[in-house]
Each structure stands twice: as structure tokens, then as C-alpha cells.
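Researcher: Batch entry, complex prediction.
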Amino acid sequence: MTQSAPHPHHASPLGEQTTLVASLRRVYALVLRYWYVIRSSWPRTAELIYWPLVQMLMWGFLQSYLAQTSSFAAKAAGLFIGAVLLWDILVRSQLGFAVAFLEEIWSRNLGHLMMSPLRPSELVAALMAVSLIKLLVAMIPVAALAYFFFGFNVLSLGLAFAALFANLIIMSWSLGLVSTGVVLRWGLGAESFAWLIVFVFLPLCCVYYPVSTLPGWLQPVALALPPTYVFEGLRAIVLEGTFVGHLMLEAFALNAVYFAAGCATFAYFLKSARINGSLVQMGE
Amino acid sequence: MQKPTLQSNGTLPPPVTVRGLRKVYNDITAVDGISFDLARGSITALLGGNGAGKTTTISMLMGLVVPTSGEARVFGADMARERHKVLHRMNFESPYVDVPMRLTVRQNLEVFARLYGVRHLKARIIAAAAEFRLAELLDRPYGKLSAGQKTRVSLAKALINEPELLLLDEPTASLDPDTADWVRTKLEVYCRDRAATVVLASHNMAEVERLADRVLMLEKGRIIADETPAELIKRFGRANLEEVFLAIARRGAESTEETPSAP
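Model: C-alpha cells for the complex:
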């Protein structure tokens, strides 16, 4: 049992430290820290938008060209643009999560956070919130560009878009948890893992082509990944005008498993880092 | 405010109790079964050469490193398993850990004040800024400050929650003598006014002589001396703590097999 000694004048007592309000306050504090970083540097904000914008322009013009030369492409207007938008949601959200964590190591601030009353679950909640903020900063201009340049209105997908979006975000957080866990355990030597992990999903999740395109032996792998159902669902909406609900439900079910696995992986590597001392010697 | 829980003998329990604390990394023993208590309001220096086990001991006191065996309790909480019960009553400062460079001083203090649940946040930041001569620097990015200014920010951060236990890892490393003296005075005043307990790891023997009322000398992860600086100097028959440190370090280098003892 902990001693109930006199408390400092300015810190809240233990009872207040353990409430949900206190927990939210700590999450807010960390989100505020990342927001200050984003706000302090316009090149950083521009960097968030740059790649999604370039991707959108390239795939948008390619689709425009194909629409002139192919009846399928003409019929499938918005397929590539929709796919690139959704793919960027997955990529930007995962990178937003992982890079926010990497910033703590780059700035040698992780020790301060780990020594503060911030709990690991609160750190994760803050990283999730920051990934969403960064995603919105990046994707709102890109979605606007898709509408004004190529006539693709992502909001016209309605509630279906909410389901697609939610599935991708949850998957990005799972990947973020695994990649930051790996960095916690192995330090900045594993930094490239945090940057690259998501790209293995580009061919496997069938972003730009249906699952049936993959060789038979690879299809079960694709179908074990939640984003595959999202991109299949997008194609059903764009090509057939139907929202296939069971695809989203399957994606949500898989995401529940992946997110639980991500949390367990993060917790395991954090525990491992406290055992082998890598929290104290965070670096390469 | 909660009332302190007294021991059966009517005294306050020690804020830090360490029993049989041991840490082994692979086949290297960093800390080898040390035990000690720290009295409330005391300043205890951990001394020892590189690799003596100072940082690992402090890390275990903070709960950042889990001991292989034994336990470190802070305000009664086992730091390996229940550190979050007491972290809001502690803080630490080290030149090897920074606060975010791009954030201004004010933003950094605000973020940490919120993390520690500090009440009257704005007033506290202004008071800390005044106390650590940071008022003019509040809106400057931390990364653009000089080493001395950064140390003042780190100290303001370390004291933002008015901790009852303060862990300091070489708090004046790389500071000019004037700034270092200023920092030591601030620490002395804080500990005297708040009856805070301080653990200080330092290679600056003059600093230890001035600040510490107890020295735990570590060698190869073991405590080889546990006395006041004056007692240690007297027992070793030296002029100052630096000479004591050198005598121990050189003896250790000459004979790794011998059990350490006073001359």
C-alpha cells in the first residue's frame, strides 16, 4: 500500500490522478504537445499534404487518360481516385501514429514521458488522436482537390465512407502499435520498420485490383487483412453501386483481432524494454 | 489534504526503501543486491565511476527499469509494479534527457504541468518562470536556448509539480561555474523549504560535498561506503571527496579481486 504523505501544493492528489478526467487531461496534454509541433512549422504541415497530393494528381490524370481510351475505365470513374484516397488514409494515419512516437525519441523526451504520470494506454490514446489530426490536415485538401479536379466527391459515399474510413483507421493504429513497440524494444535502429511496415500491404490488400487477380495461394493472405475488404467494398460501390455490408463486418471483426494483437505487442515490447533497460538507452 | 500515515513508532516511513536490489543485463551485473532507506528531506548522492550502477539504480527508483530481484519502493509503492500510484509525487532532471526542442518554454511547461495534474496552471508557470529567470524566454523555442538556459528550463520542469522526491542525474554537467552555483543554490533552497528528498548522481565532487548530507559510494553495483561526505573524507584520510573518489577508483582498477574496504 502506498503512503498517504502530504501532497505538494500544486499537484492533484492521488484520488484525482486516477480518475477518467485526469486520464483525459494527460491525453490532452500530449495531444497539445504534438499540436504545438505541427503548428510551429509550416514545412511540416506542407510535408503532411505533399505526398497525398502528388499521388492524387498522378492517379487522377492517369484515370482521366484511361477513361478516354477504355470503356471500363470510363465506367469506373473514381475507382483509382477513391482507392488512392483510401490507401492514403491507411498510410498517413499509420505514419501519423508512428512518427509522433518517433518524435519523442528524436527529441530525447521519451524518458520524461515515461517518468511522468502518463500511462502507456494514455500514450497510445494520444498517438491515436494525433494520427487522426494529422490525417485530417493531410486529407481534407486532397479530398477537395479530388472533387474540384477530377469530380470525385468522397462524401458522396455517405455512410459507406464512414465504415471504410473507420476500418482503415483501426488497422493503421494496429500497425502503429506494432511498429512503435518494435522501436521501444530495439531503439532507433528499427526506425525504418515504423516507416515501411504499411507498404507491405499495398500489393497484398489489393488496393487497385480485385482479390481474384492474386494467385490462388496468396488470396487467403489478402483475405486475412482488413483493408482488403475495404478496397473490395470500394470497388463494389463504384462499379456496381452497392454497399456490401458483410465485407465491412468482416473487416471490423478482423480489425478487432488485429487491434488486440497490436495492443498486446506494444505492451509486451514495453515490458521487455523495462527489463532490458532500453527505455533508458533509447537510441540506435 | 491527506494526512501522512505514521509508522508504529510514531515516525514517518522513509519515502524510499530499497531492499536487495539487483539488476543483471545478460551476464553483466549492473546492480548487485543493494539495500538502503532514504530519510524525508535528505539529499543523498550516488557516487561511483562509469558503470558503477548509478544510472541503473536511479532508473529502478523511477520504475523505468525492472529489477532482476529485490525491490525499490517509493512512498510505499513497488516501482516495478505500481509506479503510477506515486509518479505524480516525483520528478527528475538530467542533461541527457531533453524536453521537445520546437516547443516554446511556456508550451513545454504547460504540457508537463498538465501531465502532472498541476493546479492553477497559468499561475504556476508564471511563478516557475519568475523563480528560474525564464520570464523573458517563455515564448522562445527550447531548442534555441543556451545550455544554461536549457538547464533552467529543465529544472523548472522538474519542480513544476513541487515533487516530494527529486531524482537528479548530473544536474550541473556542462554548465559554467556561475550557472552551476546558481542551480545548486536553487536546489538547496527547494529542498530546505519543501523538505523534499533528493537523489543526486554526480561526478562533481565539490557539488556532492556542498549538497549531499549522505553519500552512497557504488562500485561494481555494490555499496562500498554509506556515510556523510565529511565522515567519508575523514575515514579515508583525504583532503576532499574528490581525493576519496580517486583513491577508491584507482584501488578498484588495481585489484578487481579484492573486497573493497577503507584504507
